[in-house]
Amino acid sequence: MANILNIETSTAVCSVALSSDGQVVDHRENYDGLNHATLLSQFIDDMLGTARRREMPLDAIAVSIGPGSYTGLRIGLSQAKGLAFGLDLPLIGVNTLQLLAVTAMFKEFFDDDTLYAPMIDARRMEVYTAVYKNSLEAIEPPQAMILDADSLRWLLDENHLVMMGNGAQKAMDVIKHPNAQFMPDVKPVATHMTALAEKAFRESNFIDVAYSTPLYLKDFQATVPKKKVL
Hints:
about 230 residues, five-stranded mixed β-sheet, disordered C terminus
């Protein structure tokens, strides 16, 4: 039985969960926007307090590694690395796209041959996405995709394809296909990481505490704020 601290900061949601043997023991979530730098440390302290009170020694730290918000991913991974190093624990990296797919699977019943296309908003008409089978085998690898009316048509013509995540709202506006289903309300949160984190722990699938980096999928592009007209 593994006790795991799960950290999810890849989107506007900031969340932390303490799990034991895949079951959530305690958690904290905030949906108000990108307040990760302010909230994350307190959420983690709360979960560490719960672990101490319940005499649950931690076995690993799990963190979402992207794709997603550049700032959110950096904050989450930095905190997770610090904890893993300070507590001498292994570090688990959870792919955010797989997390969204698993969340959709748990939220609603689908046939075994259904395909899943998690989508994270990457600004304008671009999303971070991939396509998975029910087993999480990738049909399309993680990538940045500009959506249009023909996006994923080669799969939609032959398969029921579920699109979920905050990028799925964009897909709803341009992809009109009878085999398409949209779940834009599905969000990546720490309480839904437990199954993937537990599986990674059992398989000793850990990432390097010192050198691991977020899965950005594309280079960061800084922008210059527009000057206000006085």
